[in-house]
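Sample intake sheet
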Amino acid sequence: MAQKTALIIRHVPYEGVAGFRAPIEAAGYEVDRIDVADERFSSLDLAEPDLLIMMGGPMGVYEQDRYPWIACQLKRLARRLEANRPTLGVCFGAQMIAEAMGGKVFAGPASEVGFHPVTLSTEGLAGPLRHVAEVPVLHWHGDTFTLPENVELLASSPLYAHQAFRRGSNILALQFHAEMGLDPRIEAWIEGGQAAMARAGTTEARLRADHDALGPGAVTAGQAMIAEWLEGFD
């Protein structure tokens, strides 16, 4: 039997799969990664891998004039989603799923940066997201999206109603970062996110302290969530 394949799409080098790698590999996937800046990216068939994971990035889905690869990625992502191939999107990756499924991504009213829990819907509590119930997880975004048709809302926060959704068992979109909490690349997030932190009313000291205190628990919960999700594909 051929080994299952997982492809991670990195939109910026410092936003990788982080804590989610362990449960993906434990589920038997051979993990590969590609950056959108790689010249091979534009010719990849995104429907081919058994599992596709799209991570975060500081760009907006609506900035297609500035980032021409976004439109190219959306078209290929839409074909994958039409085929109901297992797909995970985190933050910008979740927004890409929303847009490819007919939702609309737009700049939100506030910058949401820092560790705090999400509130789970009834559907969220009944599935893999139950592992992150009441667990402070990292948020780092200022964009949001309308929900596509035929999806279930799984989680919300006081600032943003749409924190996670799924379509069936195979498509999962997470606005929050339950993969982050043990990764030293958090320093690159802090270095490049000064404006977002200021808008959110937080500081480097607060983020570092919360990362040290809350990060390990967030990653443990996030790994359990992803492990359960990977077991439930149609």
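Comment: The helical segments are 21-26, 69-82, 92-100, 122-125, 186-192, 194-200, 204-230. The longest strand covers residues 105-116.
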